[in-house]
From TrEMBL:
GO terms for cellular component: membrane. InterPro entries: AB_hydrolase_1, AB_hydrolase_fold, AB_hydrolase_sf. Residues 41-265 form the AB hydrolase-1 domain. The lineage of its organism: Bacteria, Pseudomonadati, Pseudomonadota, Betaproteobacteria, Burkholderiales. Signal peptide: none annotated. Pfam families: Abhydrolase_6. It comes from the Bacteria. This is Lactonase. It comes from Caballeronia arvi.
Amino acid sequence: MNHPATGIDTTRFVELNDGAHPVRIEYQWLNAERTDAPIALFLHEGLGSIALWKGWPQMLCDRLDCRGLVYSRPGYGRSTPRRREERWPVEFLHRQAHDVLPALLDALGIGAEERSRMWLIGHSDGGTIALLYASAFPEALAGLAIMAPHVFVETMTVEGIEKARSTYETTSFRDKLAAYHDDVDSAFYGWNDAWLNPEFMHWNITEEIATIVRPLLAIQGYDDEYASMLQLDAVETAVPHTRLVKLTQCRHSPHRDAADAVNDAIAAFMASHRT
């Protein structure tokens, strides 16, 4: 059922087999009644969830005249938490792009025709997942708009994630983040331990994403505390048809720090590529 004022569908759950263990995925439709409209699928950041997006996906979908699909990845939000003994491997983002996301689309009955009209909207880790999906399934989407993606590991990224761990363990940040996750330690340490794994320093997907053929918009702020503009430049080198938007007075979350500029850029980009 849709909320009468906003068109936001109530949160639902779907069961997937995530490797050896079944998981429950929390998802939500926006503007669900628009079955004729293309889908904008939102991929959240490393500590994100449906709830942490807040109202931005609905705002953007209304601007784009799209249906929206928002979900919390395993380990986040109200989806199945990460098992306490589980340590996500270096390839954890590949697993989300190559296995979990396609399985979710299958479970929701989103077929090839709908996928070919689907736009991916990804932030941070979600932007990386969008890139990996688009490179692995080059025809199974219409295009993608990503914000603050990671395609290789910079020293400043590791330093920012180490600082986040200290903040989580010594301040009220954990309590604030707990409002968005059923198991906040699952979300935080799954992400934090993976990025601080020494093996992750060698992670680099710049060659892999060169197979992307669909329209690609990449957005980042100059004041991003987790990465430099070398990330966007590397994306453009790998995928020369990329459209870059570099924002001043903007940190790691462009959709929060510069929402109007981001919405304008995504709307103009999609309009220029939609048939």
